[in-house]
Amino acid sequence: MRKLKKAILTGGGRATRLRPLTHTINKHLLPLANKPMIFYAIEKAVEAGVEEIFINTNPGEDQIKKVVGDGGHWGVSITYFEQEGGPQGIAHVVKCAQKFIGDEPFMFYLSDNIVLGSLRPLFANFEKNNVDCQLAFAKVPDPQRFGVPVFGPAGQLIDVVEKPAAPASDFAVTGIYLFGPKVFFDAFTRIKKSARGEYEIASIFSYFLKNNYKVGYSEVTGWWKDTGKPEDLIMANRLLLDEMSVEEFKIEGQADQGSFITGKVQVGMGTTIDKSCRIEGPVIIGENCTLESCQILPYTTIGAGSIIKRARISNSIFLNSGQIDCDLTIDASMVGANVSIIKNGGEGIHRVILGDNTLIQI
User: Fold this and answer.
1) Which of 126-130, 224-228, 337-341 has the lowest mean pLDDT?
2) Which domains does the chain have, with CATH numbers?
3) 300 beta partners
4) Which among 101, 266, 304, 343 could disulfide-bond with 286, CB atoms 3.0 to 4.6 Å apart, if both were Cys?
5) Which three-class secondary structure string do you get for the chain?
6) Which of 91, 350, 283, 308 is nearest to 198 (CA)?
7) pTM
8) Beta carbons of 321 and 305 less than 8 angstroms apart
9) Which of 213, 203, 210 is nearest to 134 (CA)?
10) Is 49 left (phi over 0), alpha (psi -120 to 50) or beta?
11) Does 166 score more than 60 pLDDT?
């Protein structure tokens, strides 16, 4: 039985829908449950049996390499490569990794996809059924945002269409694909760029289905989310916090006697929580934070080095080294690194310094 030991993970792209956060941080490094998003993709690949990982990066960018490293933390080998000739579509990313894959089977994983549950069943179906390609589908409310499978009258898969205006089903092709030896690269030579000037991954699947390749598919078990929008990240953060075991929540910082802490709460080393704070889990607070006279409510994650005073925060993601010092209620929000929200001395006066693509609701 053939074994799949190699994987390509995405680490590039501009993530325009997540600006201004992605002006300064690679999307795949945005924290979910206080851990870079791409770590979850790496962990899923390793748990399924992958031993070599190849991550594409934006030209000249080394953020991901600095954070992820060589893979030793996970006991695998990680290599980085750039997409030659600039952005030309998802399928072109895979083509650029051909020299690493050779004639072996591999997984292609879009690292901004969050999956709860193991990939082992997907790998087992791929290996047992000896298919050329194994796809994973998930039901979604907005299939027009994704590649959408088309089924024939007998329920058989007959095509995949990228971002259709009128979807033929309410399924989306998730960003996890398994390919047999050589078949992807053979198909790539047969497809052309789409109307938007990209080599679409859906064109590969369509070619397979129209040329008698064996394409297997199954519905994702558990939960799947493409984190293309801020609200997707906030929802993924919630679900990952719920997924974490009680043992992963430890209070290693200093909480004053009299502070109220309940539920699953993780507090990093060097963090101080004064007696007038209320924290209701699930919550993660990073290292070296200062919390005074504030409420941190369920599904909130606070990055390392943050200072939170007087605010009431729920269902939100705060990146590192932020500062909030004012009577403010925040919900369903994402706040970037080094952001300060502080009380102005003048009554009824607000002073702001805002970058492009910023959203404020007051």
Assistant:
1) 224-228
2) 6-238 (3.90.550.10), 244-342 (2.160.10.10)
3) 283
4) 304
5) CCCCCEEEEECCCCCHHHCCHHHHCCHHHCEECCEEHHHHHHHHHHHHCCCEEEEEECCCCCHHHHHHCCCHHHCCEEEEEECCCCCCCHHHHHHHCHHHHCCCCEEEECCCEEEECCCHHHHHHHHHHCCCEEEEEEECCCHHHCEEEEECCCCCEEEEEECCCCCCCCEEEEEEEEECCCHHHHHHCCCCCCCCCCCCHHHHHHHHHHCCCCEEEEECCCEEEECCCHHHHHHHHHHHHHHCCHHHCCECCEECCCCEEECCEEECCCCEECCCCEEECCEEECCCCEEECCEECCCEEECCCCEEECCEEECCEECCCCEEECCCEEECCEECCCCEEECCCCCCCCCCCCCCCCCCCC
6) 91
7) 0.88
8) yes
9) 213
10) left
11) yes
Kindly state the tokens that stand for 163. Answer: 């971002």
What is the phi/psi pair of residue 254, to 5°?
-110, 115
Amino acid at 263: G
Residue 99 confidence class, pLDDT cut points 50, 70, 90: very high
Q: What is the pLDDT of residue 355?
A: 55
Contact 277, 291 (CB under 8 A): yes
3-state secondary structure of 101: helix
Sheet with 254-255, side-by-side order of all strands: 254-255, 272-273, 290-292, 307-309, 323-325, 340-342
Per-residue pLDDT, averaged over 323-333, amounts to 88
Confidence of residue 347 (pLDDT cuts 50, 70, 90): low
| Eight-class DSSP state of 315 | S
Cα 231 from chain centroid? 12
CA 271/CA 295 separation, integer angstroms: 15
Which two structure tokens, joined as six digits, stand for 125? 């179906």
pLDDT at 303 over 80: yes
